[in-house]
Amino acid sequence: MVITRVLIAIAMEAESAPFVAHLGLQPDPSFFPPQTPFNAFRGKHNSCELTVVTNGKCSVHEVDNVGTVPAALATFLALQKLNSTSEDADLLINAGTCGGFKRKGAEIGDVFLTTAVANHDRRIQIPGFVEYGIGKISSTSVENLANHIDAKLGVCTTSNSLDFHEVDSHHMLENDASVKDMEAAAIAWSAEMFGTPHFGVKVVTDIVDGDKPTQEEFLENLGSAAKSLQEALPKVIEFVCDKKHDEL
Predict the structure, then answer these.
(1) What are the catalytic residues?
(2) Which of 192, 204, 201, 195 is nearest to 248 (CA)?
(3) Its domain of life (predicted)?
């Protein structure tokens, strides 16, 4: 199957806005149910039909909706909407920022493409639930794309916290994580329900196993990482469009 329809899930407005503006995508206010805070932007780039969805803002705290709950719901509803209008996505790309691990060669600004996703905060020490909690899901293979845009490859591990504790560090190591975020595993879980091939494009804002506080480094580098993401994503779209999945 040739890829002509791509769904791009991006959590934060600061991460999505440069890309949406660069490609001239237009808001579609009727895409999501009115009860939800999510946003959709649609348009065409070359021969590919693009839909970008974001988690929107929390009406109570007036900040971006981040974490696994809004990510899973927004992705599910987006895939359901496209399915109901016979515009099924050929590919889902989860784009955004992440923390990177120095031990895996990550540096600020690096672009990583995911080989798999997993959770490091779902610790359920009951037989059968241990593996469920980790919930490791393989990404579609994108080695040719990684070579084309000079990106790194690795596992993305997910939790609902920006910071982490030693027990998280242990599980991130067990997950063989190259990067960590707050949405990837949830987005992949929703994509799997629809049988939609998926992978992540993640730009490093902070070094998890470095010596600077995560929140400080994240805020310091968010702007430059969003710019790096905006530069990488069009290259990703241009490469994947009109290709078959086994060519990625």
Answers:
(1) 15, 206
(2) 201
(3) Eukaryota
Domain count for the chain: 1
248 within a domain of the structure (yes/no)? no
Give the separation between CA 7 and CA 143, rounded to whole angstroms. 20
Side chain identity at residue 103, one-letter code: R
Range with the lowest mean pLDDT among 44-53, 88-97, 116-125, 219-228?
A: 219-228
- Say if 115 falls within a structural domain: yes
How far is it, in rounded angstroms, from Cα 229 to Cα 207?
Answer: 17
How far apart CA 93 and CA 206 sit, in angstroms, is: 21
The answer to pTM > 0.90 is: yes
Nearest to 133 by CA among 146, 117, 121, 149: 121
pLDDT digits (tens, 9 = 90+) for 84-108: 999 999 999 999 999 999 999 999 8
- Give the structural domain span for 205: 5-242
Question: How far is it, in rounded angstroms, from Cα 80 to Cα 84?
Answer: 6
Q: CATH no. for residue 134?
A: 3.40.50.1580
Predicted pLDDT of residue 50: 97
Tokens 């359920």, located at residue: 124
User: What is the predicted pLDDT for the residue at 125?
Assistant: 93
Q: Does residue 247 lie in a domain region?
A: no
- For residue 44, the model assigns a pLDDT of 93
**Alpha carbons 141 and 139: distance in angstroms, whole number:** 6
